[in-house]
Specification:
Mean pLDDT: 89
CATH architecture of the largest domain: 3-Layer(aba) Sandwich
CATH superfamily of the largest domain: Alpha/Beta hydrolase fold, catalytic domain
Strand order of the largest sheet: 12-13-15-14-16-17-18-19-20
Order of helices and strands: EEEEEEEEEEEEEEHEHHEHEHEHEHE
Number of helices: 7
CATH class of the largest domain: Alpha Beta
Structural class: alpha/beta
Number of domains: 2
Strand content: 25-35%
Shape: globular
Largest sheet: 9 strands, mixed
Number of strands: 20
């Protein structure tokens, strides 16, 4: 296979584990702006809190858990709610009793993921709630980071932004007993990578994944995790945004290149070439990873771009058009079909533009069950890692 294969020139059928992988995902756009009515009927509720109101909070009402316009009302023997005027698309939601301290759970008190519906016509659905989270004692989180993970610094200074940040490091098994040099993977949202205790919505399990792969003889790697901060949407966005404010993405990427990478290369045994320097992240972390590949193609050679928030930075397509010709790397794109309705089209538009103008290898994964969460990104991290540390293929895929 030519090293210059792109998403537009390489068509390949691939079978992996339990999944068929195919090149082209055809996206229909008919009826995209039609409006529909969604009617929900609550068939069963826990016996507790019989007098409390039930609300729906989701992507259609800015996740407001107690908006009176989204309260269920009694209809015959059941509670019901009508949501008119919804456009064709994918919606996620949860049921609450008025605030986020009183959310639904399963019958044992465990968290449940966001409920998902793909709406393309007037729809009626019946639901049941297994339990309420506040009826069960809170189970304290435990540390889950492996012995190969440490906090390198609790307050590493970012001169480009005049603030500090916790930095994690994963050193592969055998690092201390050898003189071997390793590739380095830089990842954003470091608090969600290794440790359940520090993660807000579950961890990626990067350390467990790599421990297992390395034990099986797969290539080893150093991983650097950079915690996010209170200005995450600014730090991970290279463009000013009317809603979220001034962009700091350029300064953040400069920090990685000018400050953090030189420090890591000096202190640890690294392979510092672009071919051995990787970057990865999710959501806006995926956006800034892609941006870093375009801005510094001589520093970063491979990227994991999981569920990138391209919607927040529409100018990224123009940057791709301008900079792609200078890029020759590997790009792993992931999208879940149960994310926003624009996620897959947005990635496809960028990936196609990249493929048209660069000699990069592009791997595009779409998962029918994939959601915008750590569980989905964890599921595909191993595939991403094996691809960037292997020979690399260029295809767009879809699970069946």
């Amino acid at each position: 296979m030519s090293s210059t294969s792109t998403i537009n020139t390489q068509k390949k059928m691939f079978f992996n584990k339990t999944s068929f992988l195919v090149f082209m995902l055809m996206l229909g756009c008919m009826d995209a702006f039609s409006q529909h009515e969604l009617r929900l009927i609550m068939k069963a509720l826990p016996a507790t809190h019989p007098g409390d109101s039930i609300y729906i909070a989701g992507s259609f009402n800015n996740w407001d858990p107690g908006n009176e316009k989204y309260r269920f009302v009694k209809l015959n023997e059941n509670l019901s709610i009508n949501l008119p005027g919804l456009e064709t698309g994918i919606y996620s939601f949860k049921f609450t009793r008025g605030n986020w301290g009183k959310t639904e759970s399963d019958s044992s008190g465990k968290d449940i993921g966001n409920r998902i519906i793909k709406l393309d016509s007037d729809t009626l659905i019946e639901y049941s709630i297994g339990g309420w989270k506040d009826d069960f004692p809170e189970i304290p989180k435990q540390h889950t980071a492996s012995q190969n993970v440490t906090v390198m610094d609790t307050a590493f200074f970012i001169p480009q932004l005049s603030r500090t940040r916790r930095i994690w490091i994963y050193l592969p098994p055998g690092y201390a007993d050898s003189k071997k040099k390793y590739p380095v993977l830089y990842m954003h949202d470091g608090q969600n990578l290794f440790d359940e205790l520090t993660s807000a919505y579950g961890e990626w399990g990067v350390d467990e994944c790599l421990d297992s792969l390395i034990n099986k003889g797969k290539p080893a790697c150093i991983v650097i995790g950079i915690d996010n901060g209170p200005k995450r949407l600014n730090e991970y966005n290279p463009y000013d945004n009317t809603e979220y404010g001034k962009a700091e993405g350029e300064e953040y990427v400069n920090f990685l290149v000018e400050t953090l990478k030189p420090y890591i290369d000096k202190k640890y045994r690294t392979l510092s070439s672009k071919e051995n320097t990787f970057i990865a992240g999710s959501s806006v972390g995926g956006l800034i990873s892609y941006y870093a590949m375009l801005r510094y193609p001589d520093k970063f050679g491979k990227a994991g771009i999981f569920s990138p928030s391209f919607w927040i930075a529409p100018d990224i397509i123009n940057l791709t058009d301008s900079f792609a010709g200078k890029v020759n790397g590997q790009f792993f794109f992931f999208a879940g079909e149960k994310e926003s309705d624009s996620m897959i089209p947005d990635i496809k538009k960028v990936a196609d533009k990249l493929g048209e103008n660069s000699s990069s290898l592009i791997y595009f994964v779409t998962d029918p069950e994939g959601r915008h969460n750590e569980a989905s990104w964890r599921k595909w991290f191993e595939e991403f890692y094996l691809w960037i540390t292997g020979n690399g293929l260029s295809y767009q895929i879809k699970l069946n």
